[in-house]
Protein: Photolyase/cryptochrome alpha/beta domain-containing protein
Organism: Rhodohalobacter sulfatireducens
Amino acid sequence: MNNINSYRVFEQNEKEVKNERDYVLYWMQSTRRFHYNFALEYAVSWANKLNKPLLIYEAFSCQYRWATDRSHTFMMQGMKEHLDIAAKKDLNYISFCEREPGQIDEMFMNLSERASLVISDEYPIFIINKSNQKYSQKVDVSYITVDSNGIIPLGITDKDPYSAYFFRKTMQKQFVEAYTHPPRQNPLEDLENDNEIESLSGVVNQFPDGKKALEDIPTFINTLDINHSVQPIEWEGTRQAGLGMLGQFIQYGLMDYSEKRNDPDENKTSHLSPWLHFGKISPFEIVRAIFEHQPEGWSLDKITYNKGSTGGFFNGNPEIADFLDELITWREVGFHFAHHRPDYDKFESLPDWALKTMNEHRDDPREWTYSYQEFAEAKTHDELWNAAQRQLRQEGIIHNYLRMLWGKKVIEWTPDPETALEYLIDLNNTYAIDGRDPNSYSGIFWCFGRFDRAWQERPIFGKLRYMTSKSTRKKVKLSQYLDKYGDQKSLL
Ligand SMILES: Cc1cc2nc3c(=O)[nH]c(=O)nc-3n(C[C@H](O)[C@H](O)[C@H](O)COP(=O)(O)OP(=O)(O)OC[C@H]3O[C@@H](n4cnc5c(N)ncnc54)[C@H](O)[C@@H]3O)c2cc1C
């Protein structure tokens, strides 16, 4: 029926496909794009098989933990872009922003009553994972989720990878096979039955406010009971903006990536994490665009399995290899971990050595401790930490290298590691535009030892890897960064 690797397809219930019904329903939850989307491709193939039209339902919950004006605006900008495309192309597409809790549920259940089957996105964490579990039980037809998260299908691993090195071995073995089976660029082109689905207006008009929300995003958001203190950022949540960011990175950052990515003053990383998080851009299209910049004569044949070492695998440009190690190994290790570990966000999920060493140092005296509010307002004694937190508050991101320091210091300045973890998850997921992602948990839990190894023992940290602001200041270029976000320079 299609070429999608079975390791990407997850049957969520054992219910039947009802041929006599009106359409195939694709519920777009995390892979929010019409291109390079395995779930959409899979839904199209089902629609063709049953000779039915396809209904795409993209909705968005008004209330979820850490909901802010920032995350809502970014998401809704992407939905508005979809609404415009759908209108131009006459797609059967419903875009719905919930005003009151429960409306998404009602709308989805109503739509599912006319569906032959439901296809949705596989996503290992947070509300999407839970909603797939819940709705697959509530509907009376087959409910299938499809994984478009990364290059390496989630179903390939059979347990949680304990280190990046371990996962890199899997990645190296699977890369060529996975990469040469990409999602179709424009799956909707293959849809055979593009009849308009009749009498959907009854369902859609049920909540007229939600339908109108995208016409005036700020006004709609203002009426919601969410955290309004976290403001929208300058970047737009559209696919167009994400592709623009990719183009800029390839032009200005990629060839300096290895040398300059750690220097906050250089600004040479891709900044793609927000669009990756909201599913606006596919890792496949990023890798394809990046491969075009391999040296002449390079091809996939040059790739050699290298037992999990970082070098000597892609065997092309080293800058490209370094970038792809972040985009594939480091990004996807967290997705695979969460896929196998429902406790991915729990302190107890940390490796035994890390739990043991933190316990042994639980009562070590702390020179400084701060409340959540003091951290949130960047009121610590450390100018560099405060600068990183200010960048996070104002722009919704922290420079990659400083994000590690930012996380490590909270461990040092809280009464115990459990409190540190709770604060970090809340700070990250409230302010970061790319927060609430498997990568959020990889990054934060990495500070506590996940995917890492034991280092030399020290107070408070025990054997966890240790970082200091002093050595960071020596190691990376920061003067412009501190001019912009340092104490006195920036008003919160
Ligand atoms: C405490 C802490 C919290 C973090 N929270 C998040 C988060 O909420 N969301 C998030 O996407 N990332 C998070 N990270 C990982 C990393 O910092 C960001 O992915 C990266 O800074 C995003 O910037 P970029 O897109 O310019 O990265 P680039 O350097 O351009 O890398 C390209 C892509 O590779 C992936 N990547 C890069 N570095 C890492 C890494 N260390 N771990 C996992 N994936 C990586 C990201 O998808 C990124 O967009 C966190 C790291 C730490 C230490």
